[in-house]
Amino acid sequence: MLLLGCFRNVVLLILLVAVGAGIYLYRDRIAEEWRRFRGEEPPTAVASPEEVAAVAERKVASLADGPPPARVALSEAELQALLKTRFKGMVPRYLDSARVELDGDRIHLKGRIPTDKLPRVPGVGEVMGLLPDTTDITVTGQVIPLEGERAALAVDQVTAAKIPLPRRLVTEMLRRVKRSGAADLPPDALPLPLPRGVSGAYVRGDSLILLARGSAPAPTRAR
């Protein structure tokens, strides 16, 4: 009886080891079937900024390499990825945590900047005295069309540490930071270079819409 009991224990141990090995080898399949049984969506791999930027680059390239689609839509995530890759060299080194957000027909450009890097203009001293050494800054604007298949970013508001800057200061700051532009560029706007093959752009919902040359013009935005 003692030998029979030992034999049963050995067989049970072998079965437990075999079951454990099977569970380990097929753990991913078992987990997938369990999620499916519970009605859960399978997890999706998170794409890197480089992968998301590559998708955005292909979209933009499709407008120049023919025959192009009438328009393409770049999501907020794709614009953010381009900001970290293609346009990385255009972002000032002192601007930290730069990001772009889309809301309705508006673009919000956000980041953190040393307060002493803000342009000094007459009348801004009192405002500067209210700001910390490093300031959260938000530039809110909308894309507007210009003649000759060009576009600009019309700045509606600039806030520093959530404090709206006076309009006259914003206009003066834009004048000092932007390069000389076309005569038809409004004083409160920055030039917005369009990629090759693009005739216009506008924001709708959570996407930046790029129009191919020859397609319908972008809707006019109220100022």
Defining traits:
223 residues, alpha+beta, three-stranded antiparallel sheet
Walk me through this protein's architecture.
By secondary structure, the protein is α+β, with helices and mostly antiparallel strands. It contains 6 helices and 9 strands; from the N terminus they run H-H-H-E-H-E-E-H-E-E-E-H-E-E-E. Strands 2, 3, 4, 5, 6 and 7 form a 6-stranded antiparallel β-sheet that branches. The chain has a 3-stranded antiparallel β-sheet with strand order 1-9-8. Strand 2 (96-103) and strand 3 (106-114) form a beta hairpin. It starts with a helix and ends in an 11-residue tail after the last strand.
Give the amount of beta strand, in percent.
Answer: 25-35%
Q: Which regions have little confidence, pLDDT < 50, spanning 5+ residues?
A: 1-7
Output the structural class.
Answer: alpha+beta
* Computed CA radius of gyration, to the nearest angstrom: 28 Å
Helical fraction: 25-40%
**Tally of helical runs:** 6
Mean pLDDT: 76
What sequence of helices (H) and strands (E) makes up the elements? HHHEHEEHEEEHEEE
Q: Please give the domain count.
A: 1
Q: Main sheet? A: 6 strands, antiparallel
Number of strands: 9
Which of globular, elongated, flat, extended, rod-shaped describes the shape?
Answer: globular
- Head-to-tail CA distance between termini: 95 Å
